[in-house]
């Protein structure tokens, strides 16, 4: 076997014949590492050989995905996957160390083996005893068809797979698994890519479902290989803060469903519990009769979610006023502060402003603009927002309130949780055409920020 030395960017997988300081692809500095690459067979080899392994199918005879879905028995995960696990698919789960990836997958494995599926858990990082200890902590009886191997060598793993022939395989984690066919050490780009490629091939060939666990780097992306994301069908991120026990599973890529779908879990002493009514949970600790607290109806994927946005505005004691945000985009917040200054005539120039989304949720959609602005104004003016109000709407630079998508979903969620009043963009109200007239909700359409604050901070 011929090998040659190449240099690979750990960030994006860009290959170069010599070492470079800055990657021309992703512009990252010092990201190149030396790796050995096996020389590929020349192109056209397959055609010369004349053998074709696969056969062409008629597209209208290919089985629809819906029929091939396997419910993982964990509803929140099924929801994120778009309705269950598609047979022959590869799912990559990324997340910071200790967030609960192994716990989640062990729960999935146990649930699947309980319904008679054969599951192979490849524990490449922990011993079988450690995994057993975790399983005991989960407090459930371990099903009979759940197998575990503690192996890091891909070839041995594949041997186990052919012996056991499982329906579902979990590789925890892909970064420590290595193949003999490549000389470089485990965790390098070529190793990870090759191993993931082999698992993908296995999944596509045999209709096996594969879960790959991937570590994330300090800046939150999957360690090194972006290339990994191209190889798999779904990429899920498991996020959460150490301070609280909520964990959010987010789909960032899904070939069989919508992305940005989220599933919410709570880490308990006996494993991860699904949170079936997240809006209620996010609002339980909301302070009553305190200024600077507002509730937004946001949409995460296809699911409406009510969350509390908190603002604290206090006079700057010296120097530049501070602006800090958690869960809200900093630049968006700066823009809203400027709009409040200019269009609602609040003089925030000498005020420190802190913004926070309760429960560790990150809000990216502009529908929360009006809520953020209302929370800031409420704290600044020391006037409470009624605890039965839900607010949403996009704020434009002219102070105008713009319509947002799926207003009916948001209103329904507010109604379900017993809120009494919804403040929303006037244009959304027009589109609704009186649909919520007899719902018992007071629905107020607003056109600009001044009018909105007039209603909210009465
Ligand atoms: P783990 O699944 O090992 O994380 P990862 O695989 O993502 O690195 O989760 C480890 C953390 O979860 C650890 O800090 C202990 C905590 N934990 C619980 O709080 N309750 C439990 O039942 C289990 C199994 C773990
Ligand atoms: Mg783990």
Could you explain how this protein is built, in words?
With 458 residues, the chain is of the alpha/beta class. It folds into 3 domains: 1-40; 69-276, Rossmann fold (3-Layer(aba) Sandwich); 281-456, Ribosomal Protein S5, domain 2 (2-Layer Sandwich), CATH 3.30.230. Helices cover 28% and strands 27% of the residues. It has 13 helices and 23 strands. The strands form 6 sheets. The protein has a 9-stranded mixed β-sheet with strand order 8-7-9-10-6-11-12-13-14, sandwiched between helices. α9 (330-343) packs across α10 (369-381). It is globular, with a radius of gyration of 26 Å. It starts with a strand and ends with a helix.
Considering the chains and any ligands shown, give keywords for the structure.
458 residues, nine-stranded mixed sheet, Ribosomal Protein S5, domain 2, alpha/beta, binds thymidine-5'-diphosphate, 3 domains, four-stranded mixed sheet, 23 strands, binds magnesium ion, Rossmann fold, globular
SSE blueprint and pairings:
Blueprint: E1 3-9, E2 15-16, E3 32-38, H1 45-49, E4 69-70, H2 75-81, E5 85-86, E6 90-95, H3 101-114, E7 119-123, H4 128-137, E8 146-149, H5 154-164, E9 168-172, H6 189-206, E10 209-215, H7 227-231, E11 234-240, E12 246-254, E13 262-268, E14 271-274, H8 278-283, E15 293-300, E16 303-315, E17 323-326, H9 330-343, E18 351-357, H10 369-381, E19 389-391, E20 394-395, E21 401-402, H11 407-416, E22 421-425, H12 426-432, E23 442-446, H13 449-456
Parallel strand pairs: 6-10, 6-11, 7-8, 7-9, 9-10, 17-18, 19-22, 22-23
Antiparallel strand pairs: 1-2, 1-3, 4-5, 11-12, 12-13, 13-14, 15-16, 16-18, 20-21
The structure holds thymidine-5'-diphosphate and magnesium ion (MG).
């Amino acid at each position: 076997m011929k090998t040659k030395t190449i240099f690979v960017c750990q960030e994006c997988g860009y290959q170069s014949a010599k070492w470079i300081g800055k990657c021309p692809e992703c512009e990252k500095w010092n990201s190149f590492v030396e790796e050995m690459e096996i020389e590929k067979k020349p192109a056209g080899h397959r055609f010369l050989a004349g053998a074709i392994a696969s056969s062409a199918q008629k597209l209208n005879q290919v089985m629809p995905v819906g029929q091939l879905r396997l419910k993982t028995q964990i509803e929140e995960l099924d929801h994120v996957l778009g309705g269950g696990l598609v047979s022959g698919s590869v799912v990559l789960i990324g997340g910071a160390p200790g967030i609960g990836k192994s716990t989640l997958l062990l729960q999935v494995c146990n649930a699947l083996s309980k319904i008679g599926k054969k599951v192979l858990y490849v524990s490449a990082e922990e011993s079988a005893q450690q995994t057993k200890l975790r399983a005991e902590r989960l407090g459930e009886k371990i099903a009979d068809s759940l197998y575990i191997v503690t192996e890091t060598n891909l070839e041995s793993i594949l041997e186990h797979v052919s012996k056991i022939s499982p329906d579902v395989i979990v590789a925890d984690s892909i970064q420590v698994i290595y193949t003999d066919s490549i000389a470089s050490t485990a965790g390098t780009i070529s190793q990870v890519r090759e191993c993931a490629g082999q698992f993908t091939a296995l999944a596509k060939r045999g209709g096996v479902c594969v879960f790959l666990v991937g570590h994330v780097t300090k800046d939150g992306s999957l360690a090194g290989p972006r290339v990994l994301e191209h190889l798999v069908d779904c990429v899920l991120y498991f996020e959460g803060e150490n301070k609280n026990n909520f964990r959010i599973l987010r789909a960032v890529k899904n070939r069989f469903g919508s992305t940005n779908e989220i599933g919410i879990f709570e880490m308990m002493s006996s494993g991860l519990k699904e949170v079936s009514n997240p809006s209620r949970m996010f609002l339980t600790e909301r302070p009553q009769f305190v200024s600077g607290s507002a509730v937004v109806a946001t949409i995460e994927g296809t699911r409406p979610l009510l969350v509390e946005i908190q603002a604290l505005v206090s006079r700057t004691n010296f120097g530049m006023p501070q602006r800090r945000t958690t869960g809200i985009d900093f630049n968006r917040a700066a823009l809203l502060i400027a709009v409040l200054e200019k269009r609602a005539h609040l003089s925030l120039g000498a005020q420190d402003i802190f913004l926070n989304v309760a429960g560790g949720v990150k809000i990216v959609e502009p529908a929360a603009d009006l809520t953020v602005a209302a929370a800031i104004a409420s704290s600044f003016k020391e006037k409470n927002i009624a605890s039965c109000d839900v607010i949403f709407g996009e704020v434009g630079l002219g102070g105008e309130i713009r319509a947002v998508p799926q207003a009916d979903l948001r209103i329904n969620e507010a109604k379900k949780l017993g809120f009494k009043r919804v403040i929303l963009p006037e244009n959304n109200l027009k589109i609704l055409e009186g649909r919520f007239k007899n719902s018992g909700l007071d629905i107020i359409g607003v056109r600009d920020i001044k009018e909105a604050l007039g209603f909210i901070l009465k």
